[in-house]
Each structure stands twice: as C-alpha cells, then as structure tokens.
Amino acid sequence: xxxxxxxxxxxxxxxxxxxxxxxxxxxxxxxxxxxxxxxxxxxxxxxxxxxxxxxxxxxxxxxxxxxxxxxxxxxxxxxxxxxxxxxxxxxxxxxxxxxxxxxxxxxxxxxxxxxxxxxxxxxxxxxxxxxxxxxxxxxxxxxxxxxxxxxxxxxxxxxxxxxxxxxxxxxxxxxxxxxxxxxxxxxxxxxxxxxxxxxxxxxxxxxxxxxxxxxxxxxxxxxxxxxxxxxxxxxxxxxxxxxxxxxxxxxxxxxxxxxxxxxxxxxxxxxxxxxxxxxxxxxxxxxxxxxxxxxxxxxxxxxxxxxxxxxxxxxxxxxxxxxxxxxxxxxxxxxxxxxxxxxxxxxxxxxxxxxxxxxxxxxxxxxxxxxxxxxxxxxxxxxxxxxxxxxxxxxxxxxxxxxxxxxxxxxxxxxxxxxxxxxxxxxxxxxxxxxxxxxxxxxxxxxxxxxxxxxxxxxxxxxxxxxxxxxxxxxxxxxxxxxxxxxxxxxxxxxxxxxxxxxxxxxxxxxxxxxxxxxxxxxxxxxxxxxxxxxxxxxxxxxxxxxxxxxxxxxxxxxxxxxxxxxxxxxxxxxxxxxxxxxxxxxxxxxxxxxxxxxxxxxxxxxxxxxxxxxxxxxxxxxxxxxxxxxxxxxxxxxxxxxxxxxxxxxxxxxxxxxxxxxxxxxxxxxxxxxxxxxxxxxxxxxxxxxxxxxxxxxxxxxxxxxxxxxxxx
Length: 714
Description:
Layout: E1 5-8, E2 16-21, E3 36-41, E4 72-77, E5 85-90, E6 108-110, E7 113-118, E8 122-125, E9 132-134, E10 139-140, E11 149-153, E12 168-171, E13 178-179, E14 187-188, E15 192-199, E16 205-210, E17 213-219, E18 228-230, E19 235-237, H1 246-249, E20 251-258, E21 264-272, E22 285-289, E23 297-300, E24 312-313, E25 317-321, E26 328-333, E27 340-341, E28 346-348, E29 354-355, E30 360-365, E31 371-375, E32 380-382, E33 388-389, E34 394-398, E35 407-410, E36 413-414, E37 419-424, E38 431-433, E39 439-442, E40 449-458, E41 463-473, E42 477-483, E43 492-500, E44 502-504, E45 507-509, E46 519-521, E47 527-528, E48 544-551, E49 574-579, E50 585-590, E51 598-599, H2 600-603, E52 611-616, E53 621-623, E54 632-633, E55 640-645, E56 648-650, E57 657-659, E58 663-666, E59 673-676, E60 681-684, E61 691-692, E62 698-701, E63 704-706
C-alpha cells in the first residue's frame, strides 16, 4: 500500500492532522483506488518559496494520481489572506465517497462531492513517479499548479504488483472448527472449506491454486461503511464509532474449496490488480481431506477350546485393526452408559458374559474429528470357569457283565457350556470314551484293577481332571485250562483244572471245594507188530527178510513210521526188513512137484555157495523121469549138502521083466548108501533109483524116499 505525505507549513502553534485515502474496490467500475496518507505538519515560518511570487505557498498536486480514475479534483487558494486552501473531489456516481476516508473529521460530503480544508504550504512527498493532467490540458511533472487555482482528472497509474495474503482456511465441522492455519492439525472433515485473506483493492482478482492447478478466480471485495447525515447541514460525516478500523479497512477475498475424502491439497493464491500486475504465489498451505472415519476391524484374539469357530473362549482379548494414524478409540458393551478409553490395539472383555451379536462396540475418532462406531459381528461368550466333576473317583463292575460296548464308568462334569471328555494315564489305551457324554467302555479284561485320568474340557478350553480307579469284580472258579499229554497208546488224556481266583474291589478271593477231574479221548497211533522170523535165503534168492504189520491208527492218530521215515497207509500196512545171511550158504526150497526129477547142480549152477541145503516142501512129489534117471541128482563140488525132505522122492518103476531090484542099505562112512541088488527078475524091467548121490550128503527125511519098482518078472 502506497502512502502519500502532505506537509503544510503554517505560522503559529504546531498541529498535526492525518488523512487517509483508503483502498477501494469497485466491482462494476474499471477503477482503482490507491490509499495514501497525508501528514500535515506546521512550522513557525514557511521556507518554501511560492510560485509567481505568491505568499500562499506552493501547492503540489501529485497526490491526485491516487484518486479513482475519472475523479474530478481541484484545489482552491483563498486569496488574498492565504490563510486557507481547500481540496475538492467530485467522485464518479458509482463510487461510494466514504470509501476514500478512514479518518476525516473535517471533511464534508455532499452527494458525490468531498471537500477537505487544507493548510497552506501544502507539499506532497511521493516515493513513486506520477503524472498529473492539469486543467486546460497542461501537463505538469512534479511541479505546483497555478497558485490561484489548479485542477484536473486523475489517471490512476499503478506500477507495483500487489502483495495478497492467504490468512485462513475455515473449518466449521465437528472437532476442528475455526482457522486450520492456527490449529495444530491441517486435517479437515469439512467438505466445503472456506479459504480467504486480504487483497489490494477494487479491480483486483485472486486466483486459487491446488499446487500448480488453478481452481477458481474471485474478485477482491472492499468494506463500505455507512455515513451519518447531519440534518442541519444536510451533510454526512462518519462518526468515531462508525469509522473503519485498520483491519476493516483491508479488502478481502474468499473461496469455498471443495474437499474430498483421503485427498491432500496444497492451496496457494496469486493476485492480479486492476492494471494486471500479478503477485508471486503464496506459500502452499497443505490440507488433508478426511470426511469420515474408516470402520475398525474387530477380531477375537483367540477362539480357544476344541472349536476355533464357535466364539466361546477363555481368552477375552479383542484385537482392533484399520486404526487411522492420530486417531483415538473407545470401547464398551452396547447399552452401557460409559465408554472406556482404548490403548494400543486391543482391549479385554469382561469374563463369563454372553455378548450377543453387535454388542461389542468401538468408537473411533480420527484426527479430523470424524467419529464412527464399529461392532463385532458375531456372538461372543467369555468363559474362564473350569468344569466341575460330579462323577465318583472309583467304580466296580461285575466281570460277567462286561462286553466291548458295556459302560464301565460314566464321567460327568458340570459347566455353563458343553463339555467334552478324553482319557490319559497308564491304562488309558485299554479304554474307549465317548467324548460327548463321558461313557467309558473297556476293550481289555485281563486286569482286575485299572487306573486312568479323565479330562473334561468345555467349549472355551477350560479343563479339569479327575483320577479314576476301576475294579473288575469276579467270583473264584475252577477253570478247565487244558489236558495232560495224550496217552496215544490208549487214546486218552486227563483234564487239567486250575483256580481262577476272584476279586472284590482289588482284593483276591481263593477257590474252594474239590478240584474237578475229567478225561477226553485222543488219537491212538498205529502200532507195529513184532517182526516175523527171518526167512531163509535160497540159492536162487540169497536174501533173508523179516516182516511186521502196522495196527491201523484211530481217532486221527498217526500211521506207523517205517524205518526209512515214511508212514504206512491203509492200503499198505506191512514192512519187510532184510535179515543177515551167510554169504557161503544157501537154501533152495522146492515148492512144486515134478515128474522129471531135479538136478541140484543145475539149481545152484554157477553159485559161489559151498554149503547148500535143499528143502522139499510138504506135498511136493519128485519122480525120476525114467528108470535110468533119478528123482534127485546131487552133483558134486560142495563142502556140504543137506536134503530136507518133507515131501516124496520116487525113482521111476521098471516095466515087468526080470523082477525088480531092491534097494539095499548099508552103513559106510556116509550115513546111508543105496545100491542095487544084482538079483533081477527074468522077465520084468528094473525100477529106477530115487537119488543119485555124488558128494557128501546129509538127508533129513521126514517124507518118503523110494526107488522105482521093478517090472513083473518071471
């Protein structure tokens, strides 16, 4: 703002008067008013020479450049006394004359004419160049006008850019009301923030920017005080009470800035005056739009217990998230009168209370003053009390009533919520428990006393334990435990009985009464008979054997085992075993009758045996084939020959003739000798011999040996 000092020297006392031409804003007119200050100073004697030799002093009209453009002005000197000068301004019709004055107690306003009395020796002290158009079209540069009267029309020249101010951002919503520039936060929840400040005057415009982006351009607005009308003089004069103060004297700009949520603004302004001088941008003022508080997320910290989704818990902590920086929060149970101040990011619920859906509340107040209530969306039951067992610590069961599904113990615990059960302890693996109703069944009955621990857990995870002793009671009994070894020769086995002692609550009970007895059939194994006598080896079959027979098994017994390890079968129950034989001896058994006789040499032909025995079986008849042959011919070369006759040995009989020879016997060094008598019949044929002996021989005759009969003789 430019100030113009008007100084007038007058004789006499020292007096000072201060005049202001105020900044003026006119929306409709293309004018600009620059305020000035005129300082009136008197001195004892004027030192300024007068133009044209005038004694009234010099009048400098440079100040008129600051009047509204088109204003008619004149200064009149009161000649010849030179005691008074008068400034008269005729303002355009669209200009409020009171806008020119801040303090003018001596001014007179009639219509658009404003008149000031001025002391003589008036001189303008200007710090800026000026051009004044004088009356009559003359141009005077920084010089006084005609001493008698001068005047003209102001041109309103302005060479300096304005210096606007950005002084407030007004928030009228909730927590932060007032000027954000003077508050500790620049966060607003006002969606229409009033921006404003001071500007130069009429004809100026102010452009509002968000950083470098222009938002809008507004006009500078100036105050217009009301004047009081003097009814006697019909003049209007501002009173002291109506005088415009220094702040009121300044012109202002305002702009309603739209604010959106979660956006940051960097507001600044530039001002352009009536001659398009443009100011520098003001410093950015940051504003953060926060129109509403975000909802908080509420989470049950730990849904304890055997279900992680039932919201029944002994952990009563609720965790919150999505908390905005700089925010505060509170919590309560819905319906309570008081809110509790929250700290950190969690709070604790009261224990053993049911919180229905939506009754856990938080209230979140963000830095902009927005407030929002958030609720936990599910029912929460806080339970910190453990179950209480009501079932006994011991139980007795009759063993005869046991089965894999029989209930041997009923675990029962009371709690405000559902309870589940489980087993632990040394014998727990032998039992099965129904987790929901606590029924315990036993899948092993080998013991008479069992011990285990029952744990009851409620839905919140609170637990209680109870040790349990289970007795299996039974009466003592004799138990048939098996049989003694089977006597397989007779097929019988004896029963074995032992005492199964009874139990009564862990104490043993012995058996009483006589011990039972009994037998049972069992397998009879096959049995070998005694061996038969060894058979005699023959010359053609030089082996000796013995035979035994298996008596068949019964009742599933085993067959007889042969010497080679195999077993007999029902179809073959006999076993033949070799007997030892003399390798130098043999025996030949004749089992068939023959009319052709036998030659022992032929029977044992090629044999290595030296001792030969010929046995003629009973009912066997050996007959010589003719009278010239023998029933038995011994042959020679034996160390010994023995004939055992149990049959009949006959020589062939002769045909009738000279009569038959007889067999004569005599004793010699052989046992017997048979010969033929020389006496013969004359007519009959001689009979044949029974045996022809050519070696040492022993005859064991228990049969018949006879030569052939002679034929009938003469």
